[in-house]
Write a structure and sequence with these properties.
Four copies of one chain form a homotetramer. Chain A contains eleven helices and 14 strands. Chain A is of the alpha/beta class. Chain A folds into two domains: 65 residues, Alpha-Beta Plaits, CATH 3.30.70; 260 residues, TIM Barrel. Chain A has an eight-stranded parallel β-barrel with strand order 7-8-9-10-11-12-13-14, surrounded by seven helices. A four-stranded antiparallel beta sheet of chain A has the order 2-3-1-4. In chain A, helix 4 links the parallel strand 8 and strand 9. The first copy, chain A, is elongated, with a radius of gyration of 23 Å.
Chain lengths: 341, 341, 341, 341
């Protein structure tokens, strides 16, 4: 921690800081510059008191406080420098030498729609089935998902195709139920900082797909992962799905630099959702290629037998035919990256 | 709904659109321009099928779909053109002729800290006590609040001072419990689209302070209010608390235009949180004045007996003395606006 | 300057940093923490070598470099702690005890339109006349302004009403010409980092209204002022006019916290443009009040005799009648702030 | 154009709109919905009056005006559906079957630095040399470039290596001069809406590299291209270089979806600048691969013999060795895309 003092800080005030630091278990190293005084605080006390850093900022003669250490520990690269591989079901691994493709409908609508999509994506080479049973909808008048009936349909699709299932859980009260049906729990973008939900999935040992909040800086995203891991569940896969910016041509701005940056900062696998990221089916294919080229460990793609009849997000769903094309192109990029599909 | 077709759309495709619209209960009005064909859809079918609008966007020959009607109904100005007044406890009204000041600690730390703050803000003229018992923290290693013990302290402070209490609820499982202690439920910025939580508070009849998501457009904020109102709880007060932008000098960018715009669009009262909005105690006073001048119905202010010892958000908490000054200045602005404090 | 080293940095690498710092005229103060080594650099060399700070960031074992000193000097509060008053024409002062209102058409269209507007705003109490002769337009097919003919009309309006004129200059080749007709030069938002233009107006002694770039952080805005002041022209007035965010209900997001923050950081006067800031005439009045309450030294308002016939920005122009109302309400707020109008 | 009226609009007001439209050369098609009236305007008048669209928005009973036609014509896909190929110098083509790599120093510092870099990037397979002689710097105290001496060094480097040169021009007064030395003119991000400069380069026939404004929506970027093309210079290449968002881990947020989207909307070639886009040399390589996979026609890369001694932007410059690696990896991705390097 570096504390920058106002030009006007008196020796008494500097002393007030250093003694507060020493009481907090830090060693204080003041550096007296020409214009400012800066105090470096060394030492990582076992148990930091709440609000400690902000307390210094509240002092009127403190200009700013700069923290040096990354606030995440379990999610940090140093925790597992070789990188993590998260296992889903019996056969799927995310973060290793194979790119993992999750595909399926935005929303589970009917048995037939889900089953036909599951078969189509399996045939095209997908490794996991995605599909929403509990759907976050901006409008209370929109379809909210089939709930447990949707979970059952997904489980049937898994039984037939062998594809492990990833599906969103929104309510901490449903975590146990969703665990019974799904192989991987998805935390949606709106719930990235729903801490009670994060704690609840942190108490399970189910793999978790943690979508980035559309407002979240990368460090905050990794802190959300830290919440889950602190509960003992280290099976976290990050998912970049676009952030909110001023650009309106795309639904969100897919931040592929974040994929490359996370690979520097964390050992956790990262996948990309170009469907949510762009909101336009015609952009899904190029951004899928780009994601893999940027180093992503996988993709999650919305596929629908007839997007023009989808109950949700038809505009960003690809057809079976387009998905087949996507798989061929992504495979070629993956090979350049030294990975299999 | 206006559907804009690609230049290349054929008569058959136009026919496909119009017949789909008519099956959906709409009347279709095609307008053939020089470069584009545009189809106006009239009629608001009682029960719109899920994903209906997006289905049109999924058609490759559709360029875009523009919705005309605001998606919110209960939150819309037209629902109650004269404006709503939300009553909290026996005596406080928000949205009427009096500006409502909610003040208190960011976080309930101890009995003494809370009680002394409650007394001080009461004496300075505040109408409600704020204070966090359940705290959303970016870090799992930070203080998460005293929980039910915090609620009890708040209730004691109310008993002594008579100030009704507003406090955050984060977990749908805690809504009933928080209702027992608090007079008003706060939905925090991170939970603005936590739909299970919104539904749960919508099932109570407790007044709700709905903070704007730091990523949320104004229409999405009003849709969150719609979720609560649809459950039958119309006692919603909106709270502008800053949005996330590229500016780093302030913690968020407080969007006071949103206050003025919401007054055009909705009948719901709006208050402003300049503490969260700016993150700096020195900016709280000027932004409090500006908020009232923009037409806000109230303020929510973080106050701490000794901000440099606060467990959370000390940097944005004002002292008792500064709060007194704030009350005096806000009172003068309120009078210009024709309101009492 | 604080240099944070990677955990893996070797003693040789630390030595490499310290000797580079010492060659650069700094004293190096290494602090060895538990996890990181941090090197504080003290001393402000007279003539810093170009790219010096970034050179450290280019070293693979350097994690980040934090600069401590504000990069602006002439624009900083410390340069003139009592605040600056900028004089325009014979009688107008910006930054003192009077709020300064600049009003007039977005664009000079005709002699009659400009003259009638000038008379109306003068009568309502405005202190300066605004109006565009050179107009930045997103489209090359839109009206680009009357150019020198527009300047002449503005000069005639000044001759009749006595109101000093502020108008935009976009091209460094036109600075001399615009100086002949106008009392104050406006740098528009798109040109805030047009450095050749800034240098050119810095070579004059005309007062300058420097609008904030819609993408600019506050420190970058102050650096743009520094460019002008470095040329010897210290008559700079800052103008907050909204920044670009994800919100689409307003044309920009008017950042009134920036006004309050600039008052802490700089001695320069700050005015607010609620017309550009919101893009909607109905929001101009409340945001004008809020701006003054936040501490702004003035306003710049678009007024048009018949907004529904304006050649540009009619949607954000107020009528004469609304402007009269605005003046009355702003006057009342100014009085609360201890200022005259 | 679609005009949406307020619920309260009277028949007289509707008539006022339709007659104004007809006077403007449009045909008006009112559609009377259950809640709103919407008026479709058909016909593209030869010469639209300035501010026409905004005039409707200024009417108090108009809720909003939606424009249907894209505002750009020469930059639109329809203008040249097969796509454009821009030729630079004798041998380089951008937009065809070959990916074009522009590489070189951020800033021309010395003859030796420029020459050694030019030789190195040529040897590694680059097609063009980049380098700044006029440098936009946030600080007036920073190095502003060598000016004409820098241009001469670039011309010497071209003479020896045969690589055509791209360099930035910032001041309309320098366009002619820069044309004498450079093969391609760069418009920097800060000047994307510097209309006098755009017009000036539009009057030349030199190819132009038009960087996206860090605040600019894609439609505004294409409108900037339209300014240049309207002058008769159709040799425009777009360059995505990152937009400004709340994320601080990267210098900007590189928007690769914009590349894919522009390929749908425009015939102009698009290249990507991952150096400016990310600000970190370690991210340049993955984002270079991703850009080509997203469909970009080329890259512009900052290369420096010793980034830790660069005068500017050392943090984002790659070494010769890293550039060689970049070329190998980009070549492999280009081949998958069916392109040569």
């Amino acid at each position: 921690m570096i504390i920058v003092l106002d030009k006007s800080a008196t020796p008494e005030q500097i002393e007030q800081i250093t003694s507060k630091l020493e009481q907090g278990g830090y060693q204080a190293h003041p550096i007296f510059g020409v214009e400012k005084t800066v105090i470096g605080a060394v030492g990582v006390p076992e148990e930091e008191k709440p609000g400690y850093v902000e307390q210094f900022e509240a002092l009127p003669f403190v200009e700013r406080v700069i923290t040096i250490l990354a606030p995440y520990k379990l999610a940090a690269k140093a925790y597992r420098p070789q990188g993590s591989v998260v296992r889903v079901g019996d056969r799927v691994e995310i973060g290793g030498d194979r790119v993992c493709i999750m595909a399926g409908p935005c929303t589970v609508e009917t048995y037939e729609q889900t089953m036909s999509t599951a078969r189509a994506v399996k045939e095209a080479g997908a490794h996991m089935l995605r599909g929403g049973a509990y759907k976050p909808s901006t409008s209370p008048y929109s379809f909210q998902g089939l709930g447990v009936d949707g979970l059952k349909i997904l489980a049937e699709a898994r039984a037939e195709t062998g594809l492990p299932v990833v599906t969103e859980v929104m309510d901490p009260r449903n975590v146990e139920l969703v665990c019974q049906y799904a192989d991987m729990l998805q935390i949606g973008t709106r719930n990235m900082q729903n801490y009670d939900l994060l704690r609840e999935v942190g108490n399970t040992r189910h793999p978790v797909l943690l979508k980035r909040g559309m407002w979240a800086r990368i460090d905050e995203w990794l802190m959300a992962a830290e919440y889950i891991m602190k509960g003992g569940n280290e099976n976290v896969v990050l998912c970049e799905r676009g952030i909110r910016t001023f650009e309106t041509a795309t639904r969100n701005t897919l931040d592929l630099s974040a994929v490359a940056h996370v690979k520097q900062e964390s050992h956790l696998p990262v996948v990309v959702d170009p469907s949510q990221g762009t909101g336009k089916w015609v952009l899904v294919l190029p951004m899928s290629r780009a994601a893999i080229a940027a180093g992503a460990d996988g993709l999650i793609i919305e596929v629908h037998p007839r997007p023009e009849q989808a109950w949700k997000d038809g505009a960003q769903s690809v057809t079976f035919e387009n998905f087949g094309q996507l798989m061929r192109e992504v495979r070629a990029i993956a090979e350049v990256m030294g990975k299999a599909l």
